[in-house]
Amino acid sequence: MTLNTHPLASATSWLFVPASRPERIAKALASGADAVIVDLEDAVAPQDKEGARAALLGAFGQLQAAERARVLVRINAHGTPWFDGDLQALAQLVAQGGAGVVLPKAETAEAMALLLPALGTQGVLVPIIESVAGLHAIDAMARAPRVLRLAFGHLDFQVDAGMACAEDESELLPVRLAVVLAARRAQLPAPIDGVTVNTQDSAVVQADAARALRGGFGGKLSIHPMQVAPINAAFAPTDAQLQRAQQVLAAAEAAQGGVCVVDGRMVDAPVIALAHKTLQRHQQAQRRLQSDA
């Protein structure tokens, strides 16, 4: 399996669960999320790190193979006292079929290279861009070995950059675009946008996910099972969008490569490419429904 064909290359919903609450892993896997990230970093207090790591290893052994393939672990950042121990646990998880690792506060390709022995030839790496230094080094990190996709940690980025964003986070639009463009330059799948802190209002979550889609992201991180369905809904095309895409592709096929018109609008190569992407998003949604059935 190449990285481009990895199942999580097209995953849209990524749900965090604390490693200190291993009983929640199975529930997270049943939530409809495409990927589950078991968190050893922010969700676990310093005094609980070692216990959480042991709990994760124990719970992981109870999962089915297909479930293990959807699980990643967010380790503690390079330079922390827990990094080396997390790498040892990561190697065990990948050897048992775990998908790979999410690296917080990623800032250098050199630090990411330290993960490679634990990942082997099967594990994948998702670095989170959470600082100005990380954004500065983003091209090198995007092209590093075993990188599946980039993720954007907008909350930490704001703190590091000294920003105080409004509710719509319009101040972060240039940064989000920079992450999207870096992924494209490295020929990676569309990156993963950051979390929504509101865990009560699904409309807010869906609006944030729709903004991510419009901005070129291909997925979104989440911190509560309630957020999964709105994220999946936002990234799936509407019936009208699907119908439009099917009409465009049918007209293009009938035109045999020539320019054509659908509902008074010209259909050329970019419009056709967008229609194909719409169908791909629909197929992703259908696969999720079938797996949940």
UniProtKB/TrEMBL annotation:
Residues 13-225 form the HpcH/HpaI aldolase/citrate lyase domain. The keyword Magnesium applies. It comes from the Bacteria. The keyword Magnesium applies. InterPro entries: Aldolase/citrate-lyase_domain (IPR005000), Citrate_lyase_beta/mcl1/mcl2 (IPR011206), Pyrv/PenolPyrv_kinase-like_dom (IPR015813), Pyrv_kinase-like_dom_sf (IPR040442). Its cofactor is Mg(2+). Keywords: Lyase, Magnesium, Metal-binding. Gene3D superfamilies: Phosphoenolpyruvate-binding domains. GO terms for molecular function: lyase activity. This is CoA ester lyase.
